[in-house]
Amino acid sequence: MISKRDAKLISKKISEYDNIVIVKHQLPDWDAQGSAMGLAHLIEENWINKNIYIPGARLNDDQNFAKNFDQNTLSKALVITVDTGNSSRLDFDQWNQGAEIIKIDHHIPVENYGNYNIVDVEAVAAAQVIGMWAIMMKLKISKEAAENIYTGISTDSGRFLFDRTSPETMEVAKTLLMAGADLNKINKFLYVGSLKQRQWTNYAFGKMQLTKSGIAHIILEEKDYKKFDLSYDEVKSALSTMAGLNEIKIWFAVIEWEGIYKVSLRSRDYDVNSVAINYNGGGHKLASGAKLKDLNEVKKLIANLEKLLKTKKGIENEK
């Protein structure tokens, strides 16, 4: 949980500025977008005469706070970043041209790029940090804010199944539901897919390779997903096909996207972040991202993960 001091600092800085620019990471997931949109709605509901902007891509057709702004507006703005551990991943190149910057995150710190860096590594989602801040400051939570924040928590917690789901997570979720978040609507939106999506995940799972030690991976090049006409988030859904299988101890997907080989690493028991940081990445112990120069690095990555398995230092052994 963030400290009361940090919670008050966020509120104090919001009160000091007329212009607020909220920035998320490139190729946003629902924790990034839910945190950004939820925070914007909270500010709109609890402060008067604030100009709130959220630049960058959206996962759906919600264009709230997507209005344009000029350099003069930015220079006088408070910039708040959400769910982004390092500045190179921010989806707004001019993020550092604001008057002050607050970083709100839940990833293992790798770069303190803000004037104020408020990070709760125990939170299962950045949206949980936003939600707990609202609770601590006794803010009004609108239905729109509640649904965005709940969506972020639900996705980043794997529907409340992941390791860092905690009593605090549930407290925030309870508060959001009491504020009007429509659980049935959110679950249908997130977890009822299309036939095309199921065909894609079936195809992707068919490309899985598994080592004798239990390391699984799927390599997805542009030629694989182009015919399916998918967004990045939809392509990445192939990662989940390797989860929940006894034979798989560590799994990852390599996705070629816009000329970059993006890696998503997962495990139930092993600190994959310790490997990801050596491949221009990072995140959490059991869920991290990375980047490869080319596909020739896949063998090296697997070798590093084999070494991780041989250490027998799973998360449970650290407790």
From TrEMBL:
The protein's superkingdom reads Bacteria
According to the UniProt entry, its GO molecular function terms are: nucleic acid binding
Record InterPro entries: DDH_dom, DHH_sf, DHHA1_dom, Oligoribo/pAp-PDE_c-di-AMP_PDE
Q: Which residues form the DDH domain?
A: 19-153
Q: Domain named DHHA1: which ranges?
A: 227-310
What protein am I looking at? Answer: Bifunctional oligoribonuclease/PAP phosphatase NrnA
* Lineage start: Bacteria, Bacillati, Mycoplasmatota, Mollicutes, Entomoplasmatales
